[in-house]
Write a structure and sequence with these properties.
heterotrimer, A alpha/beta (260), B mainly alpha (285), C alpha+beta (347), A: 260 residues, alpha/beta, D-Maltodextrin-Binding Protein, domain 2, nine-stranded mixed beta sheet, C: 347 residues, alpha+beta, Rossmann fold, OB fold (Dihydrolipoamide Acetyltransferase, E2P), six-stranded mixed beta sheet, five-stranded antiparallel beta sheet, 9 helices, 19 strands, 38% strand
Chain lengths: 260, 285, 347
C-alpha cells in the first residue's frame, strides 16, 4: 500500500512539472515572437534604423538591396517605448515632435533631433470627386458622407484643430481610428470627403481638393541619432534624409511628404 | 374513466418544464492526472487576463468614468446593435440551420464550410468584404442605394449587419448540430399524428432542440457584443450611432488607458451575468 | 373502408414491389424475414414514403398516385402509427404526448387532456405516470403510451410496427386485447411473433424479398405460405394454457412439461418440426406424449405437414419418407411427443 502511495505522488509531481514546463515554453515563444524584432543588433557594422510606420514605403525604397542596414518599422510611440525598454538602435525617425520629445526626455535618444519632412493635412475625395466637393466648407454638407480621424489619434487631433480654426462644424459620419482606414473608405467611394495626409493621396489613389485653410496644418517628422557620438555611417545615413538632394529626401518627396 | 377518477386532476399538471432530477453522485475520476493539470492550466490562461484587468481597474474612479455620457451612449449603442444582431441571427439562422440539417444539399461539405467562414475570417477582412458587397459602391449595395436610397455603412443598421455577419455561424452551427442529433424521427411521428410542417416545427422540432437554441442565441449575442473589427470597418465609428463599447474601449486606450479598463469591465460584467444566468436557467449542465 | 396498395416503394436500397394488395377490416398481420419490406409497407401507407409508381387508396380516396401527381402528406391521412422505437416526444409529459394528435385536430387543451387520460387508462397507464416525461418510463410503459398516442386521434388505419417486443408480460396481454378491439377499423400489424399472428390476426400478408409471397385468411396463408421462411414461421404451434411452475395445463386438460418456470396464463409455442409422431406408444419418458387423431397430411416436396386433432390441435412437420413409412392417412390414431426443451413459454 505504502509503495503505491509513493509512486502515485511521484507521478503527480512529474505530471505537474510537465504541464508547467509546457506552459512556460509556449509563453516564452509568444514573448519572443512579439518583442524580439525590436532593434537587436546583429553586429556593430549594421546600422539599425527605427522608422514610423507611415514611412514604410520610403524606408523600403531607400534601403532596398542595401547591406549594413536593418530597418525596423512600427508606430512612433511603440518605437519610443521599445527604445526606453532597452532595444538597441542607431537612428530613430518619428512621425511627430511629441514622440521624439519623449524619446529625448527619457534619455533614449542623445543626438539632436532634426525635422526631415512634413505630412500635410489634405481635403481628400474618392478619385474623380463624385460628391463635387469644392472646399473645406463642404464638410458641413449633410448630403455627403464625411469621415475624419478620431481626435484620439494624431491625424484626428490635427483635423479638429484645423476645423476649429476655420470655424467649420463638420457633419461627420465616422471617426476612423487611423488614417489608413479613413483613406481606404474614401478610395472605396464609401465616403465623399475626409481629411487625410498628403501621403495618402497617391498611396490610396484619392483626389485632393484645394483647401487654403489647411496650409499650416501638418505633422512634422523628426530624425535623430540615438547615440551622442554617431559613427560616420550613421551620420551619412541621416544626411541622406536631411540634405536637399539626399536619396531619402527624394524618396520622401516621391511619396508625397512635404518639406519641413 | 370518469373525470376526477385520476389521483391528480389533469388541470393541476403544470405546463412548464419539469424540475431537473437530482444531481447524481459524482463518479470516480478516470482522467489521467496530467490531463487534469493541463486542464486547470488552460482555465488559468482564460482567467488570468481577466484578473489582470481587475487588478488594474481604477475602482475609485469607476463610477465617474462609467457615468460619462460617452460611455453610457456606447453602452446603449452596444445593446441595440448586439440585440439587433442576435435577432437577425435567429430569424435568418434558424431557417438556415433547418435547411442544413434536414434538406439534402448538393455539396453539403462546401455549404457547411461557407457557413463557418466568418468564424475564421479576420474581422477587418469581414468588414471590408461587407463593404465590397453592401457598401454604397458594393456589389449589392449600389442597387440598394439607387433603388431604395438605403446605404448601410455609417449607420446603426450597418453595425447590426456587421455584427450579425460574424455572429451568425455561432448560432447556425450550434443549432444545426442539435437538429442533426435529434434526427427526423420525432418529426415523422408528429406527421402521423396530424401535425403539418409548421405545427411539427413549433410543437416538436424546436422544443426538442431548445437547449441548443438558447446556447446558440447566447453565443451569437456574446460574439455580437464583443464585435469590433467588422463593425468598425463596415459601419465606421460615430458616437451614438455606430460607436459600441468595444470601439469606445479602443479609442479610450489612446486617450486614457484607465477609462479603457473600466469600460472593458462593463463588457465583461454584462457578458458574464447573461451567460451565467442562461446556463443556470436553460442549459442542462 | 379498405387500404388498396399497388406499386413500388424504394427505401434505403430496399425495394418493395406490391402487385395489388387489399387490406380489409380488422387486424392484418404483415410477416416476413428481416429486410423484406414490412416496415416500408407500413411507412408508405402512413405517408412517410412516396410510391415510385402505382397507386395507394385509403377508404376510397387516392392518397398516392405518382402518375397523376397526387400525394396526400402523412398529416392529412387518417393513419396512425406505433413505431418500433416508440418515438415519444421527450419534451412533453405523458398526457400531452397522448393529447398531441387531438390538439392538432383542433380540440382545446382541457378536452384533449381528458380524452388522452381516458385512452391512457385503457392501455393501462395509471394516472401517477401522466405528468412524467417519457425518459422516466420503463420500456413497457413507453410502448403503451405510444399505442395510446396513436389511437387517441381515432385513425381509420393503425399501423403497429413490432408492438410487443419491449413490453412486459402483464402489458402484453392487455395490449393484445387492446389491439384486437382497437377503435381503428383496420390494423396493420407488422410482427415477428407467432403468438401475435395466432391471437390477433384475421388476415395475413407474407412478404418475401420485397414482394407479396402470400395473402389471405390465416388458414389460407398457413396452407400456402409462399416461401420457406413463412412456412417455418407459420408452422409454429401456439397453445394457450395455464402455467404453474414447469407445468402448463392446456384447455383439454393435457399437461405439458416445459423447461422454464412460469405462473398464470401463458402461450406455449413450438415449431412444427419439434413434434415427433409414432404408430405405437413411445418407450421411455411419458412426459409430453399424447394420443392424437390424424386429420390431414399436406405433402409439399420432401416435407409432409401433418395436422393433428385431439387434445392439442397442432401441426407436425416430418419428412415425406417418414410419412410413407408410418403409412399416415386421415382418421388414423397416432402418438405424438415433444421434448420439453423445444417448448417456449410466452406470457
Amino acid at each position: 500500500m505504502a509503495g503505491g502511495r509513493i509512486t502515485d505522488h511521484r507521478y503527480r509531481r512529474r505530471a505537474a512539472g510537465l504541464a508547467v514546463v509546457a506552459v512556460v515554453a509556449s509563453m516564452s515563444m509568444i514573448a519572443a515572437g512579439c518583442g524580439g524584432a525590436a532593434g537587436s543588433r546583429a553586429s556593430d557594422d549594421i546600422v539599425v534604423v527605427m522608422a514610423a510606420s507611415s514611412l514604410a514605403d520610403v524606408v523600403e525604397t531607400v534601403f532596398e538591396g542595401r547591406s549594413g542596414v536593418t530597418p525596423v518599422v512600427a508606430g512612433s510611440s511603440t518605437l519610443v517605448a521599445q527604445l526606453a525598454a532597452g532595444a538597441e538602435a542607431d537612428i530613430l525617425i518619428t512621425a511627430s515632435g511629441d514622440t521624439m520629445e519623449r524619446a529625448v526626455s527619457e534619455g533614449s535618444v542623445r543626438g539632436e533631433p532634426v525635422p526631415l519632412a512634413a505630412n500635410n493635412l489634405v481635403l481628400a475625395t474618392p478619385a474623380g470627386n463624385p460628391g463635387h466637393v469644392t472646399g473645406l466648407d463642404d464638410l458641413t454638407r449633410h448630403d455627403l458622407l464625411i469621415g475624419l480621424c478620431a481626435p484620439e489619434v494624431p491625424c484626428g487631433a490635427l483635423a479638429r484643430h484645423a476645423l476649429d480654426e476655420a470655424h467649420i462644424a463638420p457633419s461627420t459620419d465616422t471617426l476612423e481610428p487611423n488614417v489608413r482606414a479613413l483613406a481606404t473608405k474614401l478610395s472605396l467611394g464609401e465616403l465623399d470627403a475626409g481629411l487625410v495626409y498628403g501621403t495618402d493621396i497617391a498611396r490610396a489613389g484619392l483626389s485632393a481638393v484645394d483647401a487654403p485653410e489647411l496650409q499650416d496644418h501638418s505633422n512634422r517628422y523628426y530624425i535623430a541619432s540615438v547615440s551622442a557620438e554617431p559613427s560616420a555611417a550613421v551620420q551619412a545615413m541621416i544626411q541622406d534624409f536631411t540634405s536637399v538632394d539626399g536619396i531619402g529626401t527624394r524618396a520622401l518627396h516621391e511619396y508625397g511628404f512635404g518639406r519641413p | 374513466m370518469r373525470p376526477g377518477a385520476a389521483t391528480r386532476p389533469i388541470s393541476d399538471i403544470p405546463e412548464g418544464p419539469l424540475s431537473q432530477p437530482g444531481t447524481p453522485a459524482r463518479p470516480i475520476s478516470r482522467l489521467p492526472a496530467a490531463l487534469t493539470w493541463v486542464g486547470f492550466v488552460a482555465l488559468g490562461m482564460l482567467v488570468l487576463p481577466i484578473v489582470g484587468l481587475l487588478q488594474r481597474a481604477p475602482w475609485s474612479a469607476l463610477p465617474s468614468i462609467l457615468s460619462e455620457s460617452e460611455v453610457l451612449e456606447a453602452l446603449r449603442v452596444s445593446l441595440i446593435v448586439s440585440l439587433g444582431a442576435t435577432a437577425a441571427c435567429i430569424v435568418l439562422g434558424l431557417p438556415l440551420a433547418l435547411v442544413l440539417a434536414r434538406r439534402r444539399l448538393r455539396f453539403p461539405r462546401v455549404v457547411r464550410a461557407v457557413v463557418m467562414l466568418p468564424m475564421v475570417l479576420p474581422p477587418v477582412v469581414a468588414g471590408t468584404a461587407l463593404l465590397f458587397a453592401l457598401g454604397r459602391r458594393g456589389l449589392v449595395g449600389q442597387w440598394l442605394d439607387s433603388w431604395f436610397g438605403v446605404s448601410l455603412p455609417f449607420t446603426t443598421a450597418g453595425s447590426v449587419v456587421a455584427a450579425a455577419f460574424v455572429a451568425l455561424p455561432f448560432f447556425v452551427v450550434t443549432v444545426e448540430a442539435a437538429l442533426r442529433q435529434a434526427g427526423h424521427e420525432l418529426d415523422e411521428a408528429a406527421a402521423t399524428l396530424g401535425a403539418g410542417a409548421w405545427a411539427t416545427l413549433a410543437h416538436v422540432t424546436l422544443p426538442t432542440v431548445r437547449p441548443a437554441l438558447v446556447a446558440g442565441t447566447a453565443l451569437a449575442w456574446a460574439r455580437a457584443l464583443g464585435e469590433f473589427g467588422a463593425t468598425l470597418t463596415f459601419a465606421g465609428n460615430f458616437p451614438g450611432r455606430t460607436r459600441t463599447l468595444p470601439l469606445e474601449t479602443y479609442l479610450a486606450l489612446e486617450r486614457n488607458p484607465e477609462a479603457a479598463v473600466a469600460i472593458s469591465l462593463v463588457l465583461v460584467a454584462v457578458a458574464l451575468a447573461v451567460l451565467v444566468t442562461l446556463r443556470d436557467r436553460w442549459m442542462p449542465s | 373502408m379498405t387500404v388498396r396498395f399497388e406499386g413500388r416503394v424504394t427505401r434505403g436500397g430496399w425495394t418493395l414491389d406490391v402487385d395489388g394488395l387489399d387490406i380489409g377490416e380488422g387486424v392484418t398481420a404483415v410477416v416476413g424475414a428481416n429486410g423484406t419490406g414490412k416496415t416500408t409497407l407500413g411507412r408508405a401507407v402512413a405517408g412517410l414514403e412516396r410510391l415510385e409508381r402505382g397507386r395507394l387508396e385509403i377508404s376510397g380516396n387516392v392518397v398516392d398516385d405518382p402518375a397523376s401527381g397526387v400525394f396526400v402528406p402523412a398529416h392529412l391521412r387518417t393513419v396512425g402509427m406505433v413505431f418500433q422505437d416508440h418515438r415519444l416526444f421527450g419534451h412533453l409529459r405523458v398526457i400531452d404526448n397522448v393529447a398531441f394528435g387531438l390538439r392538432r385536430a383542433g380540440i382545446e387543451r382541457a378536452a384533449a387532456r381528458r380524452q388522452a387520460g381516458e385512452m391512457l387508462e385503457r392501455v393501462g397507464v395509471d394516472s401517477e405516470t401522466w405528468s412524467k416525461r417519457p425518459a422516466a418510463l420503463s420500456g413497457g410503459q413507453r410502448q403503451r403510451v405510444a399505442v395510446a398516442r396513436a389511437l387517441a386521434p381515432e385513425p381509420d388505419v393503425l399501423i403497429v410496427d413490432e408492438p410487443l417486443a419491449s413490453v412486459d408480460a402483464a402489458g402484453r396481454a392487455r395490449l393484445r386485447s387492446l389491439l384486437r378491439d382497437a377503435p381503428a377499423s383496420q390494423v396493420l400489424l407488422i410482427t415477428h411473433d407467432p403468438v401475435d399472428v395466432a391471437t390477433l390476426a384475421r388476415r395475413l400478408v407474407v412478404l418475401d424479398a420485397g414482394t407479396v409471397a402470400s395473402r389471405g385468411s390465416v388458414a389460407e396463408v398457413t396452407a400456402s405460405p409462399g416461401c420457406e421462411w413463412a412456412a417455418t414461421f407459420l408452422g409454429a404451434n401456439v397453445v394457450p394454457g395455464q402455467a404453474h411452475r414447469t407445468s402448463v395445463t392446456t384447455g383439454s386438460g393435457l399437461v405439458l412439461t416445459v423447461a422454464s418456470e412460469a405462473d398464470g396464463p401463458v402461450y406455449v409455442t413450438f415449431p412444427a418440426h419439434a413434434v415427433t409422431l409414432h404408430r405405437d406408444r413411445p418407450a421411455g419418458s411419458a412426459r409430453n406424449t399424447w394420443q392424437a387423431e390424424l386429420e390431414r397430411v399436406d405433402v409439399d416436396g420432401e416435407r409432409a405437414r401433418v395436422h393433428l386433432a385431439g387434445p392439442l390441435a397442432v401441426r407436425a412437420d416430418i419428412t415425406r419418407r417418414s410419412a410413407d413409412e408410418l403409412e399416415l392417412r386421415p382418421g388414423l390414431t397416432v402418438w405424438a411427443s415433444l421434448k420439453a426443451t423445444e417448448l417456449t413459454v410466452v406470457t
